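=== RUN LOG ===
request id: a7f3
mode: sequence -> structure
chains: 1
length: 128
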Amino acid sequence: MNGAIGVSHATYKLSNLYNIYLTPAYALGDSSLGYLKLGYSATQLKLTAGSDTIAPGQVTSYNLNGYILGAGYKQYLTGNIYGFIEGNFNKYQSVSASTTSCNGYCGTMGGNIGLSSYSFLTGIGYKF
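=== RESULT ===
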Protein backbone atom coordinates (compact mmCIF):
# COMPACT_ATOMS: atom_id res chain seq x y z
CA MET A 1 0.00 0.00 0.00
CA ASN A 2 1.41 3.42 -0.86
CA GLY A 3 0.61 6.70 0.78
CA ALA A 4 1.79 10.27 0.49
CA ILE A 5 2.72 12.90 3.03
CA GLY A 6 2.89 16.19 1.16
CA VAL A 7 4.99 15.56 -1.96
CA SER A 8 7.21 13.01 -0.25
CA HIS A 9 6.07 9.47 -0.98
CA ALA A 10 6.19 6.79 1.66
CA THR A 11 5.04 3.23 2.04
CA TYR A 12 3.32 1.85 5.08
CA LYS A 13 2.53 -1.56 6.45
CA LEU A 14 0.33 -2.84 9.25
CA SER A 15 1.51 -5.73 11.43
CA ASN A 16 0.83 -7.36 14.79
CA LEU A 17 -2.91 -6.72 14.54
CA TYR A 18 -5.07 -8.17 17.28
CA ASN A 19 -8.61 -7.77 18.63
CA ILE A 20 -10.15 -8.60 21.99
CA TYR A 21 -13.93 -8.45 22.01
CA LEU A 22 -17.20 -9.47 23.62
CA THR A 23 -20.12 -10.81 21.58
CA PRO A 24 -23.38 -10.70 23.52
CA ALA A 25 -26.02 -12.71 21.64
CA TYR A 26 -29.79 -12.95 21.59
CA ALA A 27 -31.68 -16.09 20.57
CA LEU A 28 -33.94 -15.26 17.63
CA GLY A 29 -35.42 -18.74 17.49
CA ASP A 30 -34.51 -22.32 18.35
CA SER A 31 -31.65 -22.40 15.85
CA SER A 32 -30.57 -18.80 15.26
CA LEU A 33 -28.71 -16.03 17.09
CA GLY A 34 -28.22 -12.33 16.52
CA TYR A 35 -25.16 -10.83 18.16
CA LEU A 36 -23.20 -7.62 18.65
CA LYS A 37 -19.45 -7.20 18.90
CA LEU A 38 -17.66 -4.62 21.03
CA GLY A 39 -13.95 -4.64 21.76
CA TYR A 40 -10.42 -3.34 21.71
CA SER A 41 -8.14 -3.44 18.68
CA ALA A 42 -4.41 -2.71 18.32
CA THR A 43 -1.90 -2.75 15.47
CA GLN A 44 1.58 -1.51 14.58
CA LEU A 45 2.00 0.91 11.67
CA LYS A 46 5.44 0.98 10.02
CA LEU A 47 6.04 4.03 7.83
CA THR A 48 9.03 3.79 5.42
CA ALA A 49 10.40 7.08 4.08
CA GLY A 50 10.49 7.47 0.29
CA SER A 51 13.49 7.95 -1.99
CA ASP A 52 13.05 11.75 -2.11
CA THR A 53 13.49 12.19 1.66
CA ILE A 54 16.61 13.03 3.70
CA ALA A 55 16.67 9.45 5.07
CA PRO A 56 15.30 7.15 2.36
CA GLY A 57 14.25 3.77 3.68
CA GLN A 58 14.07 4.96 7.29
CA VAL A 59 11.31 3.11 9.15
CA THR A 60 9.25 4.76 11.87
CA SER A 61 6.85 2.61 13.90
CA TYR A 62 3.66 3.68 15.60
CA ASN A 63 1.57 1.54 17.96
CA LEU A 64 -2.10 2.33 17.37
CA ASN A 65 -5.01 1.50 19.66
CA GLY A 66 -8.68 1.62 18.84
CA TYR A 67 -12.00 -0.11 19.00
CA ILE A 68 -14.04 -2.64 17.06
CA LEU A 69 -17.82 -2.60 16.62
CA GLY A 70 -19.79 -5.25 14.82
CA ALA A 71 -22.99 -7.22 14.42
CA GLY A 72 -23.77 -10.66 13.10
CA TYR A 73 -26.25 -13.45 12.58
CA LYS A 74 -25.66 -17.16 13.21
CA GLN A 75 -27.98 -19.91 11.92
CA TYR A 76 -27.55 -23.52 13.06
CA LEU A 77 -27.92 -25.78 10.02
CA THR A 78 -27.72 -29.25 11.51
CA GLY A 79 -26.36 -30.49 14.84
CA ASN A 80 -23.38 -28.34 15.77
CA ILE A 81 -22.79 -26.92 12.26
CA TYR A 82 -23.79 -23.31 11.66
CA GLY A 83 -23.55 -20.62 9.01
CA PHE A 84 -22.88 -16.98 9.86
CA ILE A 85 -22.64 -13.49 8.41
CA GLU A 86 -20.95 -10.63 10.23
CA GLY A 87 -19.95 -7.00 9.66
CA ASN A 88 -17.27 -5.12 11.62
CA PHE A 89 -15.86 -1.60 11.87
CA ASN A 90 -12.41 -0.84 13.31
CA LYS A 91 -11.28 2.69 14.20
CA TYR A 92 -7.79 3.59 15.44
CA GLN A 93 -6.37 6.72 17.03
CA SER A 94 -4.70 9.30 14.76
CA VAL A 95 -0.94 9.88 14.91
CA SER A 96 1.15 12.77 13.63
CA ALA A 97 3.88 11.91 11.12
CA SER A 98 6.41 14.05 9.31
CA THR A 99 9.25 13.66 6.85
CA THR A 100 11.88 15.94 5.33
CA SER A 101 12.04 15.99 1.54
CA CYS A 102 14.68 17.37 -0.80
CA ASN A 103 12.83 17.14 -4.10
CA GLY A 104 14.22 20.36 -5.65
CA TYR A 105 14.24 22.09 -2.26
CA CYS A 106 14.36 20.86 1.33
CA GLY A 107 11.37 21.10 3.60
CA THR A 108 9.59 19.21 6.33
CA MET A 109 6.08 18.03 5.65
CA GLY A 110 3.69 16.36 8.02
CA GLY A 111 0.17 15.34 8.68
CA ASN A 112 -2.10 13.08 10.65
CA ILE A 113 -2.52 9.43 9.80
CA GLY A 114 -5.84 7.95 10.83
CA LEU A 115 -6.85 4.36 10.21
CA SER A 116 -10.28 2.79 9.99
CA SER A 117 -11.60 -0.30 8.23
CA TYR A 118 -14.73 -2.27 7.46
CA SER A 119 -14.86 -6.04 7.13
CA PHE A 120 -17.64 -8.41 6.15
CA LEU A 121 -17.42 -12.12 6.89
CA THR A 122 -19.49 -15.10 5.93
CA GLY A 123 -18.75 -18.72 6.63
CA ILE A 124 -19.55 -22.06 8.17
CA GLY A 125 -18.50 -23.10 11.66
CA TYR A 126 -18.70 -25.94 14.15
CA LYS A 127 -19.65 -25.60 17.82
CA PHE A 128 -17.57 -27.87 20.08
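=== NOTES ===
Residues 2-126 form one domain.
The radius of gyration is 21 Å.
=== END ===
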